[in-house]
Amino acid sequence: MKFDLGQRWLVLDLETTVDFIEGRIDNSPKNPLNKCMSGHYGWLGEDTVDLVHSDVWNHNEYEGSDPVHRLEEHLAQAYGCIMHNAKFDTEWLMEMGFKLPAFIYDTLHVEYLLSKGQRRPLSLKESCLRNHTKSIKKSDLVDELFKSGTGFEAMPLDVVLEYAEADVKATGELFLAQRKLLEQDHNKSLLTVIPHMMKMMLFLCEIEMNGVKIDTEALNLVELKFRAEKEQLTNDLSRIIELVMGDTPININSGRDMTKVIYSREVTNREAHLQTFNIGTNAAGKSLRPPFMSDAQFADAVRACTSIVMRTQASQCPDCSGAGSIQKYKVVTKIKLGKKYRTTGEAYKNRTKCAVCDGAGALYISTGVSAGLRMSPKGPNDASANGFKTDKGTILELIKRAEAKGNLQAVEFLTKMSRLKAITVYLDSFCAGIKRGTRATGFLHANFNQCVAATGRLSSGGGITLNLQNMPKRGFPVRACIVSRFENGLILEADYSSLEFRTACELSRDAQGIADIIEGKDIHKQTASICLQKDASEVTKDERQGHKWASFQPLFGGTSYGHPPHIGAYFDAFYNIYKGIYDWHQSLMNGTLKNGTVETPSGRQYFWPNVERTRNQRVTNATQILNYPVQGFSADLVQLSCIRAFRLFKAQNLRSKLILTVHDSIVVDTHPDEIEQVKSILTEAMTRVGEESEKLFNYKLVVPLDIEISGGINWLDQEEYA
Prior knowledge:
- By secondary structure, the chain is α+β, with helices and mostly antiparallel strands.
- Among the domains are: 9-188, Ribonuclease H-like superfamily/Ribonuclease H (Nucleotidyltransferase, domain 5); 447-510 and 582-722, 2-Layer Sandwich (Alpha-Beta Plaits); 511-577, no CATH class.
- The chain contains 23 helices and 27 strands.
- The strands form 10 sheets. A 5-stranded mixed β-sheet has the order 5-4-1-6-7, sandwiched between helices. A 5-stranded antiparallel β-sheet has the order 24-25-21-26-27. A 3-stranded antiparallel β-sheet has the order 17-8-20, with no helix packed on it.
- Strand 4 (36-44) and strand 5 form a beta hairpin.
- Helix 3 packs across helix 7.
- The radius of gyration is 29 Å and the shape is globular.
- Residues 324-329 have low confidence and may be disordered.
């Protein structure tokens, strides 16, 4: 069936209750405490939405028969259904057993595509204001009630009806405004992307509703191990801090304190520091660029804004006797949210405070000996609001520099600091996130977002859910808690092999790259071979994995600048071997300079309004310009494979469940009787995705795609399947 904007469309909006879990909103239909109160819908007219119907099911003030059949009749008559943030409403429709029409149109998704990476937010209100739709007055009472924590179910029914019916009309008018924009020549390419995104939205509804099975006992064991390691790391770091800082109190979790330890300096004039290094954002909310400075200028600026940190010796405070045991309490407030109360803890406050030692319990007297690890920031890029950067990437770079200088104490401290940060994320994000999101049924229902990344890649998280896509891949123990719902079932994962490289060769038509792919060469192993200066046959699996980053960087315009000679040699070799990719990069940048846009074969567009050449002939935003088509079209290929797999699963009526897509992979909870069948479907869906591309995008792939399938009793213990 052809996607037709001129057909008969039903505009729909559902109102539901929400729950709060650990202070986070949970509006999922999988929460048994949540309910769909009402459905509001009307037929799209020439310039507005005709008669709006309101079916009330669960509102506190409503007592009557269930009118669900009326919505069923309207959905059956509709060519398609228009919604704003359609995935939310669609999942509720699926949960309630409604049959969906042939097409779903999401005004939020289309607003995202029309924005071409330039507009946020994408709320219904903001989108209507941008598109100059008719002004629809909503009840001021609704906003007041929301702010007070009152949910829809507790609001007067007439207020709810007014609010919801206004949303339906606004959504319909937004659709009409978008339809006019899509008729313009420069937007017509988006007409191929819209049905693709809507089909992918249905796939995401499927995997979110299926959920992943969680082994809570396995998760608890992993959490205990992480906590034990965190305690040991904290003790080890505290020991080193005492050696290099004396008695100075240091908070390991404070970026400002870590600046003192690592760089042996502290900011003395914060305002001057921020201005000197251009730290902060401009009026448009974009981060300021660090200034260009010579090494001498940077050194002078550091000396002007910071001072050397000295080791200290503690002297007991006569007022509090050095106890340091100042009692603290938390100010607690309760916010009413419907029939529930949310407890919030404000900042800790001191009951008493020593005027001399400022509540620390001691005075810290300088010994006149410089403290810390004495690492040096390289340049203005290393400056931060707290002094100098202590993020993951910076720490890894500092470790390399400390190793080169033989500073074993710094290597130990920085390595353990990096690991502590990772462990903290594992505990706070993954362990806590999985526990928070797992239902009483033992299932975790993830949330995926299509309208965040400008490239079209999916993101994950929001509400009570965690970002499963950020879960480390190799050997990460938390993966062991994701298990099959079937007795003797398997978790199967099919992952594209070197997809970004294949996509770059596809879009650039690089002859050597295409030949290498057809021959079956492993690009990541080649990379490691050049970087490590050893034969490819001798490269280990871990070495291959550890040098993947080097494979990706030249695909997105990375150069040898700033890298050690053996790494820089790889970059030079890459551009000499794959000259087609290099020439394509130049063409992309020249085209963006001329037109201000980059477009993928799927029709996605990204707009750079202020791109230009700098004094050194570099193109501003060059990395993003080169990244966009590779990342964007790779994302589209993965999503096409997801859609094809979804269709095949439905056609064969499998008991196995599609449960996740992570970057370039599809994950299936596989019934033991369907292992070979699932492997066959995944192979067909992912390796023959070119058929989908040709059909939907009118783009024929020339580069073959390959996948690797692995499986095991959980998502950690995986072995490769032929």
